[in-house]
Every structure is written in structure tokens, then in C-alpha cells.
Amino acid sequence: MLKSVFFAAAIAAGLTLSAGDASAERIRNHNFSQPPAKDGYSYPDCYCTDSKGQRVEMGQKACLIIGSRRVLARCDMSVNNPTWRHESEGCPGV
Question: What are 65's strand-pairing partners?
């Protein structure tokens, strides 16, 4: 009985990890495009705001000033919110 419970839990964990790996790969590739909106609906206009208050579109990078640090970050989505993803310290080439 205990072995079957453990085996079932291991299978469930494996399925969860497989699904997580696929979504993690999609995030790493940054090639995900949202499907078309359903008839009568539209996606909200999501964007990020940089340190100067300028609008930055999804997928674009910007140099952010955080305290005395300069950080290169990419505008992305997290759950249903725009967020900054750290790319590198400093702002080479920006």
C-alpha cells in the first residue's frame, strides 16, 4: 500500500515537472506570442515604465537606475502583471 502511494506521488511529481519544464523553456526562448483574443474581447495594453517614467514595450530592454546601481532589464509578464527581468549588471551597449 505504501509503495503504491509513493509511486502515485512520484508520477504526479514527474508530470508536474514535465509541464514546468515546457513552460520554463518557453520563457527562456522569449518567442512566445499570445493567441488571438476571442471575439468581443481584447488583451489589455500592458507595458513597463523605466526609471525616467518612459514607456517600455513588452520584450524590450532598458537600463534601470536602482539606487546607485545600473541594471539592464527586460520588460516581461509575471502572472498577469508587467515586471522587469534582470538581464545583467551595468548597461553595456545601452
Answer: 70
Residues 28-52 have pLDDT tens digits of 555 566 788 889 888 888 899 988 8
Task: Assess contact for 90 and 70: CB atoms under 8 A.
Answer: yes
Q: Identify the residue whose cell numbers are 526562448.
A: 29
pTM for the full model?
A: 0.56
Q: What is the largest CA-CA distance in the chain?
A: 62
Domain ranges across the chain: 1-31, 47-94
Those residues with Cβ within 8 angstroms of residue 63's Cβ, 6 or more apart along the chain or in another chain? 50, 51, 70, 71, 72, 91, 94
